Amino acid sequence: LQKCRANPDEPIPEKNIGEIDPPVIVQGVPGVKKWWDIFLEDSPEGLFKSIDAGLLEGTCIALYMMEREAAKSIKAGITTTGENGKSVEVESTRVFRNMFALAIQASNSLGLTPVSRSRIHVAAKPTKEDENEMTKSFANVVPIDRQSLRSGKCG
After folding, report:
1. Please, which pLDDT band fits residue 152 given cuts at 50, 70 and 90?
2. Residue 12 — left, alpha, or beta (φ > 0 → left; ψ -120 to 50 → alpha)?
3. Which one, 26, 33, 47, 87, has least CB within 10 Å?
4. How far apart are CA 128 and CA 135, in angstroms?
5. Would you tell me how many other CB atoms lie within 10 Å of the CB of residue 133?
């Protein structure tokens, strides 16, 4: 996001998603939990914040349902013969297609697709060396006298 387009008042969640309890549906449905765990294990630390929990939960549900409906479609066939003798799409195929579209859209919003990933930047965790360097570089900084700056009498 360009600085001019960033919202300076946007709240910045402090907790990473791994620091909160997973949503109830994630905890109660093993297939959804499987996807939740995959995302948390395979994503860089700090990518998902606590505010992303609802969208990530929706993505996991869509992927679980997509997987389940794909299995039904494979078993039953993608189409069947309708009442008028014409070929019609099996219900599980329609649900699969809708869940696939939803999963792609949510994944895009979370930065999980190759195109959206290029727009997501995750800051690396500072190491002890980085913290020591920062402490050294700010050790000799003299505080600014804001009153002098306002009056134009800074030296």
Report:
1. low
2. beta
3. 87
4. 11
5. 12
Angle, to 10 degrees, between the axis of helix 30-42 and the axis of helix 53-76? 120
3-state secondary structure the chain: CCHHHCCCCCCCCCCEHHHCCCCHHHHHCHHHHHHHHHHHHHCCCCCCEHHHHHHHHHHHHHHHHHHHHHHHHHHHCCEEECCCCCEEECHHHHHHHHHHHHHHHHHHHHCCCHHHHCCCCCCCCCCHHHHHHHHHHHCCCCCCCHHHHHHCCCC
Q: What is the pLDDT of residues 31-83, one digit of tens each?
A: 999 999 999 998 888 888 888 999 999 999 999 999 999 999 888 888 888 88
Whole-angstrom CA distances from 97 to 10, 50, 65, 69, 85 are 34, 29, 10, 9, 23
